[in-house]
Amino acid sequence: MSFAVYVLDWVGALKGKSVWVRMYWYEAAGAYRDVVDGAGLPIARRRDGWSFLVADPGDVDVLDRLTLDGEIVLERMAGRLVDAARMMRAYDAAEDLGPRTVAAHAHLEALMGDGAEGDPDEAIYSRMGMGAATWRAVGAAQTAMAASRSRTCDD
Q1: DSSP of 122-150
Q2: How far lies 128's CA from each of 50, 106, 109, 135, in Å?
């Protein structure tokens, strides 16, 4: 039994280099049954596979957009390629995950605590899947964004 993973490597295109698809495969051979993971399952070994050239530097020079499964991963903006996948992750964190985090914290605090000092903060952070430092950073960023939007709307 084997399992293959294909990876689109577009990072080089941001520096005028090539775009590649890399293929790795994992061999689940009987000889590996003696080495197990924390769940007691045998560990398949990764084997390097192949690299497939998608766009060479000449192609990258004229590339306007690259998509993967319908999602934009590279986009030419102001004459330069931008890592649209990373930009969209940052946007999603700011516009979707950040506000949801604040709402989830308020909801859990109302359910689990009385709103006074000494609420079960660690239990709230654990339910949210983050630590206290992450919550403080996200909360501060959301407060700063709200203040910035308020100033912009008032101008």
Answers
A1: HHHHHHHT--HHHHHHHHHHHHHHHHHHH
A2: 40, 11, 11, 9
Query: What SS3 class is residue 88?
Result: helix
Question: What are φ and ψ of residue 140, in 5° steps?
Answer: -65, -40
Report helix, strand and coil shares of the chain as percent, to nearest 5.
Answer: 50, 30, 25
Q: What is the pLDDT of residues 113-129, one digit of tens each?
A: 665 555 578 888 989 99
Q: Measured between alpha carbons, how far is 27 from 82 in angstroms, rounded to an integer?
A: 36
Q: Measure the CA–CA gap between 66 and 93, rounded to whole angstroms.
A: 22
* 80: its two tokens: 């330069």
Which is nearest to 102 in space by CA: 126, 136, 151?
Answer: 136
- Sheet containing 19-27, strands listed edge to edge, beginning at the edge strand earlier in sequence: 2-9, 19-27, 45-55
| Helix, strand or coil, per DSSP, at residue 62 | helix
Instruction: Kindly report the pTM of this predicted structure.
Output: 0.70
What is the tens place of the pLDDT at every residue in 30-78? 777 788 889 988 888 888 889 999 999 999 999 999 999 999 999 999 9
Residue type, 19: V
Cα 119 to Cα 18, 46, 128: the distances in Å are 53, 46, 15
